[in-house]
Give the backbone structure.
Amino acid sequence: MNRRHGDEAGGLTQAAQGYLLTLRSMAGAGLHPKSAALARRMGVSAQAASEMVGRLAHDGLLTVGSDRELRLTRRGQEAADRIFRRHSLLEWLLTHVVGLGWAESDEEAMRLQSALSPRVEERIAELLGHPATCPHGNPIDARAARQRPSGIRLSEAEAGAEITIYRITEEAEEDVELLTYLERHLLFPGAVARVTEISASRDSLTIDGPTGPSTMGLRPASLIRILPGRADPALFHRLPPRFNLS
């Protein structure tokens, strides 16, 4: 595998980077998947996932346990973290400067991230004001993760509570329909809303947000993190005015 010195993530194929990002997301959710679960999450065949797992294991980026569970090695985790940072910076650029939607920017960032040199990556970070999160509110690196509150699931909020949308988790980011719905209703990190109804029988939750009432299932709501009340605005990155077109 062709790798640049000190930049292992940059030498990975786009497909391999996608697998590492997905494994990173699943590990962050407390999961240690087997190849079949990874294939379902990636939307590929079991054979394709198994072949990629074999290549990543051969390159020392993941291990396959005796129970067939997949775990990123330290090198794999470091590579996945670098990929996520690049992906996040590109998403900021594509959404707030180029003007793409969330779902489209994710797809374009996946295409571009492997071509981004460390020098250009750092220049983009500087131009964007060194965001601590991706546009969806997820910590951009381990340091940011340690410094930020974890929040609670939207599905755990009480009816009548005022809340601030805090994070659209990485698992939620993979749901294009959910991303599009949240974007349409302006439910971005930092948006203030009120939970107006929770219905276990209908498996749904309704909030009154920036565009008025919006309803979603309790499972999608469990993928969104909130903070009670009106959160500190400093928690939410704002790009320098010259780049912010929103």
Observations:
- Residues 74-98 form the longest helix (25 residues).
- Residues 152-231 form a domain with the SH3 type barrels. fold (CATH 2.30.30.90).
- The beta strands are 62-64, 70-72, 152-153, 162-168, 192-199, 204-209, 212-217, 224-228.
